[in-house]
Amino acid sequence: MLTTNTKFSPTSYFNSLPESVKKAILESGLGPEILHDGLRFAIPIWWVFRDKTGSFGLRNGSAFLIELGQGVLAITAAHVFREYCENRRTAQAIVCQIGNALFDPASRLIECNDDLDIATFRMSAEMVGQIDKPIVPADPPNWAPLNPAGKEFAFFAGFPAQSRGMTPTGRMFAAVPYFAMPPITRVTDRQITCRFERDKMIDFSGSGLPPQGYDIGGVSGGPMLMPTLTDQGIVWRFAGVIVEAAAGVLFEQIVAVRGIFIQPTGRIG
Fold it and tell me: Which stretches of the chain are DSSP H helices?
């Protein structure tokens, strides 16, 4: 645990350190601790359908649960929901799940805002229990105004489409999560952008970094969170919804729409 007796909070103290010292602290164990703690919040949303030819298709995106004071909401990107709706429109049959729970996105929809690329859904206590994932909290003591700034770290997680598949029995969906904690490179009134800096990446797994241009499409709808280090542990604060994952030879970046647009009721705007 990172602690300090200076006038700074642990997070402020960490951000004030030289890059070489930050890297050493992250490699010593703090980095994996933060990453695996944040990964708990990401949830796959996926659907299997049979098209008019009788062939089966499998699609997925990412999602998370959040409590903003008026009930638990599920959040994903609007374009993930729109893809589901198009498959549903043309399919002979379709089944959707969010995590471990059967899920009918259309009947649970609160609002789909295509401009902001966010979709919100009403969740029952039974479904939340079936999903069995932690909920991004909105606990007032930890909910001071969030003003992300460049060079601060942001965590994101999701489930790339290229890692998805069915288990050998054909009864279960499987996907390998992609998660990272890059520095913020740009903040606007609407979006948060994190451009990957490969010369500063750290391989915590020991299996090597993903190749440059690795396609992480499918992480859309996953959470962007900001970790706050305290003497008692890690406090997670909601920053935004992942809406774009650009992977290429020239640059790689993640873009999130800021969470300030989501109201406690699940309405957007």
Answer: 10-15, 19-25, 31-39, 78-90, 105-108, 125-131
Strand 155-158 to 223-230 pairing: antiparallel
Here the contacts of 100-105 (C-beta below 8 Å, separation 24 or greater) are: 100/130, 100/131, 100/132, 101/127, 101/130, 101/131, 103/45, 103/74, 103/127, 105/45, 105/81
Condensed to tens digits (0 to 9), the pLDDT of residues 192-226 reads 999 887 777 766 666 667 777 777 888 999 999 98
Q: 242: part of which helix (H) or strand (E)?
A: strand 233-247
CB 155 within 8 A of CB 181: yes
CA atoms 160, 165, 171, 176: torsion sign: negative
* Maximum Cα–Cα distance across the chain: 67
Residue with more model confidence, 142 or 127: 127
Dist. CA 189–CA 119, nearest whole Å:
19
Residue 53, judged by CB atoms within 10 A of its CB (0-12, 13-18, 19+), counts as exposed
Domain ranges of the chain: 1-269
